Amino acid sequence: MQDDVTISRKKPRFPVHAGLAKYLKFYQRDARLPVRYNDLLEFDESVPVYDKHGEDTYWESPLYPQHTLEQLHAKLKVVYASLKASGNTKIVEHKIVDRIEYCAFGNTKPFRVRIINRLNDVYDYFYIKQADASRILGLELEEIVSPNQVNYIYDRDTLVEEHIVGIPGDVFSKTSMHREDFNQTRIAKEFVKFNERCIISLLGDMRAYNFVMQITPDFDDYQFRIRAIDFDQQFYEGNPKVYMPQFFKENFPYVKLSMEYLTERTVLQYQQEEHSSIVHRVRSERHRIKDLRDASRMQPVSTPENIEQLKSGYAEFYKNSAYERCKTMIDIVELNVKNVIRQVRL
What we know:
By secondary structure, this protein is an alpha+beta fold. The chain folds into two domains: 18-162, no CATH class; 167-345, Phosphatidylinositol 3-kinase Catalytic Subunit, Chain A, Domain 5 (Orthogonal Bundle), CATH 1.10.1070. 42% of the residues lie in helices and 18% in strands. The protein is built from eleven helices and ten strands. The chain has helices at residues 18-26, 37-40, 66-85, 133-145, 169-175, 184-201, 252-261, 264-284, 286-296, 304-318, 329-345, and strands at 45-50, 56-63, 95-102, 111-117, 123-130, 152-155, 158-162, 167-168, 211-217, 222-228. The chain has a five-stranded antiparallel beta sheet with strand order 3-4-5-7-6. β9 (211-217) and β10 form a beta hairpin. α6 (184-201) packs across α7 (252-261), α6 (184-201) crosses α8 (264-284) and α8 (264-284) crosses α11. The protein is globular and about 60 Å long. The chain starts with 17 loop residues before the first helix and ends with a helix.
């Protein structure tokens, strides 16, 4: 397998327009927060954060003025309560903000906040990022099209996201994939289904370090689910292969596993299973997906050049000239979903 996928190094951030903001308010995704993204940028300096093996994590620990730190921590606890309990601050009575970390590496330059329960030392994370319309639309599509629930809050220029638990995909492939008690076929099956969801929802750049593997013990086996944790490249790029995890060299262990344990017939079967699941979810959320489509019609999320390239690429990939009539990235997603519905009906 050859990696010929190119990704724009710096995707622009798209401000949220009125239509999408109205949608987020209607579906209770918005809130007025005591801390916004720019407030967290007011630190004097930072120190690098290393993992337990002494390796650089590309995160930094900001150093805030001491006289503002206590107030900032109190506000961050309120943000956590808004994310986890609709603003009920009773859940943070025994919690403290343990640390704040900053990553200048990502498109949204996120802050990661670790919060600890003083009674039992159980900790949790949440993220504060710059609001980006394409990312928000990606989170909404993940909620509708995938089997996963997504929890986030939007406040003008700020996006707060829940931490998604799981083993990073690159770590899993190196340390756990070939465990004797893990069913290799189940892992390969999940990668096929994940690949199909990305193609349909235009979720790009799903390299192994941008998704996690969630493992659930069953009564006689383990169940696996791959979850995306990075939506920065949601329907921006024009190259169709960006939305196909199978073409990234970082995912070769998963591709190799699929080639070893699956046949062409079983791959087709799992793709069809995923299509049926998507149709079921779309039908149950048909009003929401229609509202999302309407809200995003006038919302820029890419460039005209990328849209032209992608619709031509999908027309060739699916052998379907209808893609040439698409005017936006949202139109391409809608046509993807309609095609899936037609295939399931056949």
